[in-house]
Amino acid sequence: MTVAVCIASGPSLTKEDVDYCRDKAKVYVVNNGYQIAPWADVLYACDGRWWDAYHEDVKKTFKGELWSIDTAAICKYNLNSLGVVNNEAWSKSPDAIVTGGNSGFQVMNFAYIQGAKKIILLGYDMKPRADGILHWHGNHIPDLTHTCTSEYPQWVKKFKAAAPLIDIPVINCTRDTALDCFPKLQLRDVL
Fold first, then answer.
1. Residue 91 · residue 167 · CB < 8 Å
2. Domain limits at 62?
């Protein structure tokens, strides 16, 4: 069985959980996830501004596949390219994903179209910590700073719309999550 672990950037993500996944599944990281899992199989980032800010560091530290939907970044940094299917809740196309409004959704759809038979989610908090921290790595650099908090409810709705269309198990092992449309289990019980 091909198991994919999709690692987003929620503040409850721990290095302990990330390291536990090493060599147990195909690991997909989003954005700054390459810093906590430089050994991951896939780095996905949809935002060209993110690639502009981090591409040089990624080249030095990350050896896995690099993917995006941003056509300018794909050309500029020689990234692997994904297409986008609009006006759908979930894509089963072999070469296109639904955006869902966020990279975490996109990488989950990407793992699916790459043939995952089970998907495990980590770092899918979909809410800030009580102290306002939005990501495990702290705030983004100034050029990328924006507040996700107003977008979280819309993102959760996108996941809820997609959930009944996904014909493989998706298990949310995020330590502290507002995403309740997938079974919530402990990472060590499912991987």
1. no
2. 3-190
Q: And the tokens for 38?
A: 């430089």
Strand ranges of the sheet holding 118-122, from the earlier edge strand across to the other edge: 80-81, 65-68, 42-44, 26-30, 3-7, 118-122, 170-172
How far apart (Å, rounded) are the C-alpha atoms in residues 76 and 49? 12
98: CATH: 3.90.1480.10
pTM for this structure? 0.91
Q: Look up residue 181 and give its two tokens.
A: 């449309």
Reported as a single tens digit per residue, the pLDDT across 68-91 is 999 999 999 999 999 999 888 999
Enter the tokens of residue 124: 């899918």
Number of domains in the chain: 1
Amino acid at 180: D
